[in-house]
Amino acid sequence: MGAGKDVDDLVLLTLGTGIGGGIISEGKILHGYLGMAGELGHITVVPNGNPCGCGNRGCVEKHASAQAISVMARLSGLGDITSEECFHLAEGGNEKAVAVFVAMGQALGVALAMLVNTFNYPLYLLSGGVLAAWEQFAPPMLEEIHRRSFTFRASNTRVEKALLGNEAGLYGAAYLPWMLRHQNGPVHDRILAGYRYRYRWFTRPAGGQGRRVEGRFYSAPRGNDNAAAAVGGAASG
Ligand SMILES: [Zn+2]
Q: Per the domain annotation, does 154 fall within a domain?
């Protein structure tokens, strides 16, 4: 499915209110040991930058998400406007609004350069409503990646728009349980649980005997949303 259908390795960033991420490695979602891999929205792009709810400062989602665009617009004196309104101002040639998208594109470029340098994957996908402003932010973004990544300069690494749009997460969420059924291991069990599958497991308190707990529901760790988005991204395009 989607923009990633021809590759086995890709990274997806979804630009919304925050920034979500997902990594597909050799055709499989990279989960990390707790299912939390792919928290790409919290990559630091500005040391001591804008404070983030995660406790860090300068996370890419505080500099390149829809919300960040709106905040930067306000700080630029454009008033209390949405990212979409800021986009329309930029389209109309408003210099402050254009500068917001340049700053946003650069922040995104810093994060992408790091990802390109880390993974050397062939494809990096972007999704989310902010993509409407691609013409505004993509040139500074690509310039920044080019400047910061030898790997990018020396290869035909692609940074592209995902194709399934807002439906990508849905496609991914639908596809995920089917895919996980063919994989084993405790992380996958937990992720299935996260998707509110009724399941059984054994807890083993230290020094105690195993205890069977049946039919409990657990809410998904956030990484699972990212995983779903990643599958959607792989699907999308
Ligand atoms: Zn953060």
A: yes
Give dist(CA 115, CA 111) in Å, integer.
6
Q: Which of 8-17, 171-180, 184-193 has the lowest mean pLDDT?
A: 184-193
CATH number of the domain that 103 lies in?
3.30.420.40
The string of pLDDT tens digits covering residues 64-91 is: 999 999 999 999 999 999 999 999 999 9
Say if strands 123-127 and 10-15 run parallel, antiparallel, or are unpaired.
Answer: parallel
Residues whose CB is under 5 A from ligand 1 (ion)?
Answer: 42, 52, 54, 56, 59
Q: How far is the CA of 188 from the centre of ligand 1 (A)?
A: 25
Structure tokens given for 22: 């997902």
How many domains is the chain partitioned into structurally? 1
pTM: 0.74
What is the Å distance from ligand 1's center to 90 Cα? Answer: 27
Residue 34 lies in a domain: yes
DSSP codes of every residue in 164-196: SGGGHHHHHHHHHHHHHTT--SHHHHHHHHHBT
Domain that holds residue 105: 10-175+222-235
Query: Which amino acid is located at 199 in the chain?
Result: Y
Query: Is residue 132 situated within a structural domain?
Result: yes
User: 51 CA distance to ligand 1 centroid (A)?
Assistant: 8
Q: Is residue 51 part of a domain?
A: yes
- Give the per-residue pLDDT at 135: 96
pLDDT at residue number 6: 81
